[in-house]
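Entry
Fold in token form

___
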Amino acid sequence: MGNLANVQYPFCEEVTKYEKLGKIGQGTFGEVFKARDRAKRTMVALKKVLMENEKEGFPITALREIRILQLLKHENIVNLIEVCRSKPTTFNRFKSTFYLVFDFCEHDLAGLLSNMNVKFSLAEIKMMMKQIFQGLYFMHANKILHRDMKAANILITKSGVLKIADFGLARAFSYPKGADKPNRYTNRVVTLWYRPPELLLGERNYGPSIDLWGAGCIMAEMWTRCPIMQGKAEQHQLTLISQLCGSITPETLPNCEKLELYSKMILPKEQKRKVKERLKVYVKDEHALDLLDKLLMIDPAKRVDSDTALVHDFFWDDPLPCDLAKLLQPHSRSMFELFNARKKEDPRQPGAGPCPQPPPTANDGQFHDRVF
């Protein structure tokens, strides 16, 4: 293949049609910028595609992301408008720089959760989770796994529409054709704090349930306001999961002893399941606790799927899910920009902010770690 400077892209417009306004984030495979369409005056997000090894052409990871986003057209999934490029320059003459252009979303969920001035009502939490499950249902129905579900990858428009974003780790999946023909996907996916136990133990034959574990972690964050299991490494993450969800054994995770990392990890024994017990300090709604319990199941086969979650009593009991525009109206400034400004003021500021202490209870003193 010749160098990319000589390649013509007749269907790929130049990125100069957009005016860059500032960096707002870092995706799985590139930087993200806020920009304005010079002609339409609409706001967009530009995701820069990293071209670290241009001799191999356009990155396969970016091609996969583009193909998946072209397939997944849904209100609760981020919309890819087009792919643009910049021309090679004197300093960068062997390659064009490519950008994925998305509809702009003013906020991400991690940013909202880190802002203690943003107060969520139960009805608003229901609306946010309903939209997440709607996006997951459409994605999984189209045989796509996200593989990086976390609060930072949930974007929210100023009108209150949630959109699942960052498909840099996503892939198509198929259901195994039999026990003798399992899938062999990589298990080095999903941000550690949102990674389910089967992946931590080396499972490679997995499906939509890995995204539902992440959705459960996100749902708990709606009340705790920060990630509920903040492991320092895979071993620590498994320990935190065991302390919250109970011991990982062949009874709670069938065939786990056959997974490649099972013998290399120390799994705490005789740990009782405490999902409801620990989360009820924050979550006062019984239906919410029940749905969280069903999402954070150690056995992926028992983990509730997105369509079952959508018909759970949590969404159909008063208060019903409500419009989010009223919640977001006082927060006109983008949470991306707000967070970046804070980081400049205080470089020590962590990504999701410190966990608030749980309210005082009769059991005060038992909740000094970040496993709730």
